[in-house]
Automatic annotation (TrEMBL):
Keywords: Oxidoreductase. InterPro entries: Ald_DH/histidinol_DH, Ald_DH_N. GO terms for molecular function: glutamate-5-semialdehyde dehydrogenase activity. This is Gamma-glutamyl-phosphate reductase. Its EC number is 1.2.1.41. It is an enzyme of class 1 (oxidoreductase).
Length: 82
């Protein structure tokens, strides 16, 4: 989560995070800490956001946003990646 967000931020892109149900609270804390760090350095905290849903359908919806979402880094089982 943090590594993917770091790559996005370092390359001047926004980042949308979505954690699974087992990692939801960790992902939320990482997103909050990243947003705080960005803001402290004068960047918009909105450059990092998190989808609150842990439902896999949310990931499916992101995958459909061609032309809006440029890169998607799926993490999980083979079924998700395919």
């Amino acid at each position: 989560t943090a590594d993917a967000a770091g790559i996005c931020i370092r390359t001047g892109n926004a980042c949308i995070l979505r954690g699974g149900s087992l990692a939801y609270h960790s992902c939320a804390m990482i997103a909050e800490l990243l947003a705080d760090a960005l803001e402290a350095k004068g960047f918009p905290r909105e450059a990092v956001s998190m989808i609150e849903s842990t439902d896999r359908e949310a990931t499916g919806e992101l995958m459909k946003l061609r032309g809006i979402v440029d890169v998607l880094i799926p993490r999980g089982g083979a079924g998700l990646i395919q």
